[in-house]
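## retry 2 of 3
previous attempt timed out at serialization; input unchanged, resubmitting
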Amino acid sequence: MNFDGLKYIVVGSGFWGAVFAERIASVLNKKVLVIDKRDHIGGNCYCETDKQTGIECHKYGCHIFHTSVKNVWDYINRFSEFNGYKHKVLITSKSKVYSMPVNLATINSYYNLNLTPSEAESLLKKERIKIKNPRNFEEKAVSLIGWGLYETLIKNYTVKQWGTEPKNLPAEIITRLPVRTNYNDNYYYDIYQGIPVEGYTKLLRKILTHRNIEVKTSVDYYDISEKIPKDCKIIFTGTLDKLFGYKYGRLKWRSLKFKWQKINRRDFQGNAAMHFADLDVPYTRIHEFKHYHPEIKEIFESKKTIICYEYPADYKDGREPYYPVNDKENNSLHAKYLYEAGKNKNITVGGRLGSYRYWDMDKTIENSLNAFNIFARAKYIVK
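## retry succeeded, writing output
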């Protein structure tokens, strides 16, 4: 691979890196090289279609696009249409299935009642534990829904997901999950929702299809870093602790493992995502991917389906980092690495890994667009 004259390189072809590269190519009209250590583009949003069934499978867990940010929606629709899928999640606890996030159906099912919204709010008000300033995940959760719903639906699932007791986790994590006293069982509130009609891989490929963009997969940044010209602008979306040789220590992450099955059945679980709250069930979720594309009738109604068991795992060498452990210690550690990166005017850091943030896809795209606008100021542009 020849790096002579290379002025821009994007490390990582997930949404953040792909969008940034597209902006360099189309707005600045500059040539840019995108590399990825995996043998495919798209990062964790990579999808592939099973040849036998025609079912599109999200290879690294399910990804549902949702946003209320108009400019993000307008931008991403330049590269794909979306099918309007609305995500609905179910959770199994002690052999009983509940709707998530907590809504009126969940409350009525758990308490075996038939409450109105105002009655449900009154019940929750009694159940909530009064904690003025919740210090951790558990305190925040019980201040929202009380001990009963928390211990049935949230606590053990969280222990499995994060590999620690909820009281050891920051309170902010639980705020991603809304609590409703109506029958709205849509997982997200956002105005715009859906799955790309042709899949995420084709969407990302279109983002990266530009005369000024060259893409190379199966290329590890650390294998070629010494060959990159000193004046090249590096847009880095990997983990910062590794970039700086773990000089301050290792950032904590949670990882995932997946087990796939192809089944001769029209419908395995009746829903795209079934969560499992019980500790004696080792996995946290089962994904059934045909449910993401109900508009493709011949696939949706076929007598074959594909499911994927998702298992939380410790992050260690050889596994991918998925979820940052955003406690004070690790956020402080990440800040040290960001400071190191800031010393080099040729390095721009971003993405979920580089930013050490648990971002949804729309937030990732929005952040990339904003970061590019800063990057594109005259002092960053290669003359």
